[in-house]
Specification:
The complex is a heterodimer of chains A (366) and B (78).
Chain A (H helix, E strand, L loop, with lengths): L2 E5 L5 H11 L7 H11 L11 E6 L2 E15 L2 E13 L7 H9 L6 E5 L3 H9 L3 E3 L5 E5 L2 H11 L5 H9 L4 H10 L7 E6 L5 H9 L5 E3 L3 H9 L6 E10 L2 E11 L8 E9 L5 H16 L4 E5 L3 H9 L3 E3 L6 E4 L3 H8 L12 H4 L2
Helix pairs in contact in A: 1-2
Chain B lengths: L2 H13 L19 H15 L5 H6 L3 H14 L1
Classes of the chains: A alpha+beta (366), B mainly alpha (78).
């Protein structure tokens, strides 16, 4: 069998989308082509010298694909280029050739760290073969519940009821929505000198906020207006109702939060995700004020829950002390690899870091 | 232990395959020989014979005969 491995181009995306539909046994949707185009060819962090991904071709038919999503990150103040796998799919009859896709991804020499977030055991085992190792066993999500009956019903349908959250709900019983509402109002502090405004887009003030505060975070993805607008505002409308909340102190931007509502197939659950939250780390009240505002807004919008995920453990703890429940994300394991030996030691410590970006890429690409 | 006997043990361990190890056995004729089990099989063979296959070889190893051919290649090198 003569199989070619080629860099993906924009004109391959239609065939790639069809392959993804076929492999996952889902109906083909034309907007998936646009989603891929946005993710790979509009990405402001992409580098023209780095492939956007690779395809496998058998007699001119696309039989495999792996996306290579580039982003800039800062680890302890040092800048790195990171590549994420995404949409790793191979036609059943060419499944062993999928190893070649993994190999080319893992052997990139212009990338400092290679990352894979995957719910698929197959891709995890294949990437481990090429040196990746798993990180992030820790919980990363905290969820405020406004309507425990709806959330309970959703998790029971998913048959995912062994986690701490559901056990807690079971202990508390159904219909305690008011109890939850009261409990989270207490411990968050409101500061009248901080004002919150809803905005439609990010502007370059956010770049200054990030530059001033990046060293407070051990690991962050770059925040700049171009990237944030690309990620949250200008992308395909999959997660509806994007809301951006800017926090100001003395007219200076001191933090922001982005939320999007998740449409969950087969469920009426009104589920709001906090996709990113970033603030001046020497002013923790900004976080409290932003969270209070998000809670208020979510309640007014009739949400059943508000979830924060992939944020540092100290912030998760803060949310839990304010009445949120911890949710286990271990079903979405993360792998890391660096070819550069100098970085390998850093990679080996990754589980101690907040490597997973807080703006939701871990669960947002696929 | 012969090459065939060693592979037979590995197939039993990885795929729970208890039949005769014919040369033409392939992923279609061995239940459970998917891409993940393929990696487990490759790593079991590597461990047993103290070799390290290239990706190209791993892709090639899609029948008992092809596995033997790849292993013979290593045998000739040593």
């Amino acid at each position: 069998m003569d199989i070619d491995i080629l860099e993906v181009t924009e004109k391959d995306l239609l065939e790639v989308s069809k392959l993804i539909s076929l492999v996952f046994n889902k109906p083909f949707r034309a907007n998936n082509v646009e989603k891929l185009r946005w993710m790979l060819f509009s990405n402001p962090d992409a580098d023209e010298n780095i492939p956007k991904g690779w395809i496998l071709k058998d007699q001119n038919v696309v039989v495999g694909f792996l996306a290579n999503v580039i982003r800039r990150m800062s680890f302890f103040g040092q800048d790195f280029l990171v590549a994420y796998t995404s949409n790793y799919v191979v036609d059943q009859s060419h499944r062993f050739h999928g190893l070649k896709l993994a190999e080319v991804f893992m052997n990139q020499d212009k990338i400092n760290f290679l990352l894979c977030s995957s719910g698929s055991d197959n891709s995890i085992k294949i990437l481990k073969r090429f040196g990746a190792h798993q990180i992030m066993e820790a919980d990363r999500a905290a969820v405020f519940i406004f309507n425990s009956a709806s959330v309970m019903s959703y998790y029971l349908k998913k048959k995912n009821y062994t986690n701490e959250l559901l056990n807690a709900l079971l202990r508390k019983g159904f219909g305690f929505g008011n109890w939850f509402k009261r409990s989270f109002q207490r411990k968050l502090v409101w500061d009248d000198t901080i004002t919150i405004k809803k905005v439609m887009r990010f502007n370059d003030k956010v770049n200054q906020l990030y530059e001033k505060n990046r060293l407070y975070n051990k690991v962050t993805s770059y925040r700049d207006s171009k990237r944030l607008n690309w990620l949250f505002v200008d992308g395909p409308i999959e997660r509806s109702n994007t809301l951006i909340f800017n926090a100001y102190k003395e007219n200076n931007l001191c933090g922001y939060a982005v939320t999007q509502d998740r449409n969950i197939n087969g469920s009426n659950l009104k589920y709001r995700n906090v996709r990113d939250i970033f603030y001046e780390r020497d002013n923790p009240l900004v976080f409290d004020v932003l969270v209070k505002k998000l809670l208020k807004e979510s309640l007014e919008d009739g949400m059943d829950c508000l979830e924060f995920y992939n944020i540092p453990n100290d912030l998760i703890s803060r949310l839990i002390s304010a009445g949120a429940w911890r949710r286990n994300l271990s079903e979405n394991p993360f792998l890391i690899y660096s070819r550069n030996k100098a970085y390998s030691n850093l990679a080996n410590q990754a589980s101690k870091w907040y490597l997973v970006p807080s703006d939701g890429d871990g669960g947002g690409w696929s | 232990m012969s090459l065939s006997q060693s592979l037979s043990d590995i197939f039993r361990e990885v795929f729970n395959f208890k039949g005769e190890l014919e040369d033409d056995l392939n992923p279609s004729s061995v239940p459970g020989w998917d891409s993940v089990a393929h990696i487990a099989m490759v790593e079991a063979i590597e461990s047993h014979f103290d070799v390290r296959f290239t990706t190209e070889e791993m892709v090639e190893m899609t029948s008992v005969k092809k596995i033997k051919d790849v292993l013979k290649h290593y045998n000739n090198k040593s």
